[in-house]
Task: structure prediction
Amino acid sequence: MTESSLHPTSEVAVALELNGNLVHATVPAHRTLLDMLRDDLGLLGTKRCCAEGECGACSVLLDGELVNSCLVLGAEANGGVLLTIEGLSMDGVTDLQAEFLAAGAVQCGVCIPGQVMAAEQLLRTNPDASRDEIRDAMSGNLCRCASYQRIVQAIQAAAVGRRSDA
Amino acid sequence: MATYCRPRTVSEVLAALANAEGRGRILVGGTDLLVHLRKDPFAPTVVVDIKSVNDLPPAVEIDDDVVRFGPTARMAEISGDPFIAGHLPALGASARVVGSIAIRNRATLVGNICNASPAADTVPALFVYGSTVTLTGPGGERTLPLVEFFVGPGQTRCGPDEIVIRIDVPIPDRGHRSAFQRLTRRRGVDLATVSVAAGVDADARIVLGLGCVGPTPLVTDASPPVDLTDPAAIEGAVEELVSIATPISDVRAARDYREAMVRVLAVRAVQSATAASGGVSS
Amino acid sequence: MIGESVHRLEDPPLLRGDARFVADISFPNEAHLRVVRSEVACGEIVDIDVSEALRADGVVGVWTGEDLAAVPPIDFRQIGYDELLPYRQTVLARGSVRYVGEPVAIVVAEDAYMAEDIAELVIVDIEPLDLAPVEAMVLEGEYGLVDQAFCEAHHVLDLELTVGRHSGIPMETRGLIARPDPETGRLELHGASKVPHYTCAAISTMLNLDPHTVVGRECAVGGGFGIRGELYPEDVLVAWAALQLNRPVKWIEDRREHLIAANHSRDQRHRVRAAVDQDGFITAVDDEFWYDQGAYVRTHGATVPSLTAAMLPGPYAFPAYRSRGHIVLSNKTPAGTYRAPGRFEATFVCERVVEAAARAAGLDPVSVRRRNLIWPEAMPFDRQLSVLGTSVVLDSGDYPRILDRLIDHIEFEQLETDLARRRSEGEQVGLGIGMFVEKSGLGPFDDVEITVRDDGSVEVVTGAASVGQGIETVIAQICADDLDMDYRNIEVVHGQTDRISRGMGAFASRVTVMTGSATRFATDAVKDVARDLAANMLEASVEDLEYRAGAIGVRGQPDRSLTLAEVGSASGGELRAKASFTTDHMTYPYGAHAVVVVVDPHTGQVEIERYVVAYDVGRAINPMLIEGQIQGGAAQGIGGALLEDFLYDGVGQPLVTSFMDYLMPTASETPAVEVLLSEDAPSPSNPLGVKGAGEGGTNACGAALATAIEQAIGRPGAVTDLPVTPSMIKALMKAAPAGG
Result:
């Protein structure tokens, strides 16, 4: 056990697997994972829209689970495995992102990285979700352009594609 | 400025809280704590992250007559657990409507009670099962009924040097039925306008847990046995029980609407509990 | 190409997270600005103590209103009146505050976290005063013989109606980076502005700069909806601080700030009277309304109430009309435009009147609509009203036909029968229809410069701006259509004020109409230039040359031709042209909404079972984009009709300061919106025939939902206030059924 695990410190050393690479950062104790990603690690694809867990724009996958990165401390990600929109898009756009494009689901686009991450996790955990299940599962991701109808359509199309590939 | 530590044992947690002199805050899911940290950036909060503590009780432990929830039991696990869905259906249903998927992946049951919101989604259900809460602190462990845990909005009997180590939910006898009902402005992610959990025992006595109609979640006494085949009898019993509600007006709803809705939801919860499926809904 | 639902050029970087919004941009040595805001709604500033803040680690500077005393208040961009001048907002409060959220000081620090923390150290002592609403002025408009119509009326209607306080609330909060460029001596403004040229000019005026030295640099924009990109106090503060410090200054607001400091909208109370004859003709409408402008009059001046007054008659031929609009200053967040500004409210009022007229005359509302509509033969129709410096002349339209399209699509009679049956079985289900006229394409001009590059790709430089609406795709389509080339080879430049000398930006659904038309003229011009250049190269006379599929060729000789790229590269960059489109009038798209709702009899909750929008846009450049905007617009209108409201307590404290309380629709309750796009009435006033499409989805939501809900609960005429909440519906259900 290290000293810092027991004694409160105002700075925390963090090591995590980020989009397949091991990265290190030292961040203030209260810095959120969202702010650490954007301001310390320079990954700007994850968006800060409410910073209170009420809009989903900062959605990332931490240890394989969808989380709002504004409600996780950077310190908590120590030792974790993190996937962000940049990691998902490493080889260009995914099938899911291509369906967003085809469905015309993007308007202003600022919520889209979060929508894509939430949708990706939904496809991984509930690939056979019905339309209403998709709507409810995505209801934590606000879109003021209200492209919801098309986002749902894109998710359904991607699900069909993945089933036929499987 | 906030500081952070990640102790490995419960005794280290208690030591950290003692050293923090009232400024310690336990972190597990963080869905409420981080919002508070953000709103008060100057507070010298000592964040005590207990996710690496190795001698905590397990997240969910199912015993013969009780389900025990440790501090790390998350809403996602509780809402997806088939045993809970079968035996504590009101609790499972209430955990299923907490926030979004991303929130449920982090938020914990213990956190939900410690935040002590009058709108805490899971508390009405925990009430109807007669749950108890166990705290541990420098003076050792103590257990109290959950109903005694809440003092007021955001205030509990958990001392600054204590942590909630367990919530025990007695598994009701066969023949006990329960359900949860919640009213929101939005169908999607939203805070409750009113929530009600109903428990109906084998003798057809009704107990209600009520959210958003008082400074803390409320629980009623048990009604006398009710003829559950008679809607008027259910309504009459509910009318008596919900008289403890003292709602206020806010941006979500007016007081008189809440007063009316707590009755509507209570009847629905009782009917839902006693329907053939013993179903749950929100 | 025009009329094809091609994929958007903007999307790939947005989907990958590569697009750069203002918060994603940074410069070396940048400092960060945080605004200290009033927590009191109305009061006198006793003291602002900055001493502790000035001692904090990382502080760069702290300034209050006294330090900026030389900076004038923000002027009106649209519809200003002398009566409103005293209510303009200074960029920092001086002496007194008028709303919670009003900027009272600024803190600049080395990083954003420090700035936020240091702002907490500024101690603002304000002596609270009682709230002090004032009526600033009354707008009056009238045509026809109103009083006579009321004397002769068979029925006189008298309604009181209110619409709550809503706003656009884009997902991206506001932000700006001001960067003095040491090499050029210019001040760059990085961020969103719906009116980049105006904003740069206004800031240069306010800060006494040479107008050419302020340069707008637009980046990705996370939604506009009317509210983003107006000139706000914060924009001037950021520019001012950057000049003081001679280093880049960045400001990104947080969500709470956005909800209390960016423009609100709507918030109108109407008392409307109408004269109706025995056949259901509405012979006069006399509307008096009170518009809560909030604490100050911002850039829009009297735009919103003026639009309400001018557009309230909608598609109807009311022979006489009078409007008196009171502009009331209160202690709420200042208000401006939000998608379908003034019209969401006006259409609600107008359609409430039409429904009431039908009840009074004992006729069905659809036929009452039909007999009051302006007929296509009457087009163009002079409203005898004016707004935004133009007289309202409805340019084209077949209003009965759009109603027929809607009625046919929903199979109205069958639907009514089904709903009646369901009601008889105890279900609370209702249908509502709302008709509306929108406005779009506000002039007076737009310029476009087109250059063909050596590789054959085309650059289109516009004075327009993006608000996330897909401008690059639409303008590229218009350009590609005329040049007969691949739209993906066209780069559209917007929001860069040093690339084009003037521009009007993006508001009022104007870009497709104005910039699109200028683009069409510019492509024609560039083809002429190409012909002139190619004539020498092909040794042919200009008259013998024709444009074919991206090339100039000699008529009748398929093998003698030069591609645009060949002409362009041989000309040494001379293959370019500039064109303008000017107009004195707006275009007026129009449409109708239909909605079916189910109301829970116990809780008063409303579920939308079906939502249809029929909309005539004259000509659709990209139907997929338009339908997307209509669907999104409808969701916003539904939010305003059912969910969203900025509420305040008795001392002016805002009660709605987060997404948990400002209830925007989520995926769960946003219905699938069926869109019937039509092109019955191309605009005669521009070369493409287009009308703007951004606001028709929002316009009639309140009107249609009000009718549907009251039909569902069996209380015709009962819905008088938006948003109509479950609490209100339950109260209406308890009340005795209204007469008539």
